[in-house]
Design goal:
Blueprint: H1 3-48, E1 57-58, E2 76-79, E3 82-90, E4 93-95, E5 99-102, E6 106-113, E7 118-122, E8 128-131, E9 135-142, E10 147-153, E11 165-171
Parallel strand pairs: 3-6, 5-11
Antiparallel strand pairs: 1-9, 2-3, 3-4, 6-9, 7-8, 7-10, 10-11
The structure holds dinuclear copper ion.
Dinuclear copper ion binds next to loops.
Length: 176
């Protein structure tokens, strides 16, 4: 066996070994990623279900402004210090507005749109829901402080977008 042949065999063996190691590491990486993905999906489904639960529901955008409960445009008492209101977005206003609520009240807003996408954001709060025609979303918030809160549309919706402002007036608690 010449020196050249020995060197060549050594090189072949080395390359084969290196490739095998590469394959093994790639396999391990893929296995870890797969386990991570399966684990993530498992725990997400365990916690939230396959379809994320919501108290939203479907609405008819063409009729939503003329039919209950969106046509009523009122604060509805649903429990001690708890209320619900159906908030309708349309080009370019919010109904009902101004909305008077008592201080400390927990309000559940059901939000939809009669026409195009709008964004229901209440400045100074964590309220931020997209108003989607055909779908009603919901958000619950407790107004601990009295004052006037601006409802602002944060989804561009046409020429009147920047003036699409509503008001929520939180009336101070009466002390007796
Ligand atoms: Cu409504 Cu922007």
């Amino acid at each position: 066996m010449s020196d050249t042949t020995a060197q060549s065999e050594f090189e072949d063996a080395f390359h084969k070994a290196a490739e095998r190691h590469e394959r093994i590491w790639v396999f391990i990486a893929m296995l870890l990623l797969s386990l991570l993905m399966i684990g993530t999906l498992f725990f997400v489904v365990l916690d939230y279900g396959v379809v994320v639960k919501t108290d939203g529901y479907h609405t008819d955008p063409a009729a939503v402004g003329a039919t209950a409960p969106f046509a009523d445009a009122a604060l509805v008492r649903i429990g001690p210090n708890a209320y619900s209101v159906h908030m309708l977005a349309h080009l370019w206003a919010w109904t009902p507005s101004p909305l008077h609520v008592p201080q400390g009240a927990t309000i559940t807003f059901y939000v939809t749109s009669a026409d195009v996408l709008h964004g229901f954001q209440v400045a100074g709060t964590t309220i931020n829901v997209t108003a989607v025609p055909g779908i009603t979303g919901s958000v619950t918030y407790t107004f601990a402080h009295a004052g006037t809160y601006n409802i602002i549309c944060n989804e561009y919706c046409g020429i009147g977008h920047q003036s699409m402002i509503g008001r929520i007036i939180v009336e101070p608690e009466r002390r007796t």
